[in-house]
Amino acid sequence: MRSISVAERRARLARRQHLAPDARAGGVEQAASGLVALHATTPSSVYLSAWARTDGFRLVTMDAALYEERRLVKHLAMRRTLFVFPVDDLPTAQAGASARVARAEAGRLVREVEKAGLHLDGAAWLAKAEHAVVEALEGGRELTSTQLREEIPLLEGAVVYGVGKKWGGEIPVGPRVLTVLSAEGRIVRATNDGGWTVSRPRWTSMAAWTGATLPEVSEREGVAGLVRRWLAAFGPGTVRDITWWLGGTLTATRQALADVGAVEVDLDGATGFVLPDDLEPTKAVEPWAALLPELDPTTMGWAEREWYLGAHRPDVFDANGNGGNTAWWEGRIVGGWAQSPAGEVVLHLLEEVGSDGRRALDAEAARLSDWLAGARITGRYPSPLVTRAARGAAPDGT
User: Does residue 5 contact residue 268 with C-beta atoms inside 8 Å?
Assistant: First the structure.
């Protein structure tokens, strides 16, 4: 069995995910495809992830790819997470992950509206509401969720939760109908009413936005296609890594590994997998530093993260498993970063990185500060490390 060391895994990460200076992506589409897709739950992360991997990156370049040329498309997929995919990869993502998410979301919504007494037949209501939305967006119309609710009475109503509790409230059903439709691949987030740090999408039909309805791909083919892309970008990885990333089942993962002809490799005593033509050693990389945003695909790419995270999991990931802004040195997470009140990027390191590492990270912080030019990034998932730093606590929490 071929053995792949931690050092080689870190070299693969640096080259395939365009983080080493001599392996930068040639453009935003290559940056996205090199990671299968970019995380888009936090709007700014799409841009910051591309900035970290593309020399000379400009906001207008990503805007053009997303909203004008439409080479990149926002789509709900693995783990019910919003991603930015190359448009050619949408059919695989739809079949391999999104359709499953759509079924789960639809079933949950039907049960909840029936339980809340909003509709006696939740399935019939959902079908009518979906039809009304698709009809309203015909001809390439782009409407916000508010505008859709104003036009379609079926989208009115809310599900109440936590009655009598301080944390209780209401969840409108209209946006959840849009979530189901988007996961079904029938509608898509089109142009954005906000800037690059804000998500205020207008919705339109997938066919109008991409120029065609998504071609049908079987679920088995879709899962295999996603696993093949993941192994090319993130491999080697374990069964647990892949199952978690897909948000699917162990059975589906094992079937996909067989379908792509994945080969077992040794990962310091654990069993990992690579593609059958991916057994050659990876060329070593020069020392490199990177500053990545919260939920970056590299940070979130594996379930078993010790080989690049070490003992820093409690400092980098919140209680729900969301990774915050990270600082990397030579293939490892060594800390995080935030912004000062003036907008300057400030490092918060968790370990000593030596003088070379500190200089390289300081240079990245200065480069990012210059690129941001005073723009403030309001993160949704600050790491425990950065949260402690904001209140003046020491790295150990004291």
Answer: yes
Burial 118-130 (b: 16+ CB within 10 A, else e): bbeebeebbeebb
Q: What is the pLDDT of residues 128-154, one digit of tens each?
A: 999 999 999 999 999 999 999 999 999
CA distance 214 to 87: 10
Query: If we measure between CA atoms, which residue out of 24, 29, 15 comes closest to residue 52?
Result: 24
- Residue 139, judged by CB atoms within 10 A of its CB (0-12, 13-18, 19+), counts as exposed
Interatomic CA distance for residues 129 and 82, integer angstroms? 22
Give yes or no for residue 398 having a pLDDT over 70. Answer: no
Block residue for tokens 């990012």: 368
Burial 362-375 (b: 16+ CB within 10 A, else e): eebbeebbeebeee
Residue with tokens 């679920």: 219
Strand-pair category, 270-274 with 289-292 = unpaired
152-176 exposure pattern, b = at least 16 Cβ within 10 A, e = fewer: bebbebebeeeeeeeeeeeeebbeb
pLDDT at residue 393 in the model: 57
- Domain coordinates in residue numbering, the chain: 305-390
**Which 3 state secondary structure label does DSSP give 120?**
coil
φ and ψ at residue 238, rounded to 5 degrees: -90, 170
What residue type is 124 in one-letter code? A
pTM recorded for the entire structure: 0.94
Say what the pLDDT of residue 394 is. Answer: 53
From the CB of residue 108, how many other CB atoms can be counted at a distance below 10 Å?
12
Hey, what are 276's tokens?
């059958």
Q: Element (H or E) spanning 232, and its range? A: helix 219-234
List b or e across 267-282, with b for residues whose CB sees 16 or more CB atoms inside 10 angstroms: beeeebbbbeebeeeb
Q: Could you tell me which of 237, 259, 263 has the C-alpha nearest to residue 96?
A: 259
Rounded-to-integer distance, Cα 59 and Cα 379, Å: 18
Query: Two tokens at 142?
Result: 């782009």
Query: How far apart are the two ends of the chain, measured CA to CA in Å?
Result: 46
How many residues are there in the chain? 398
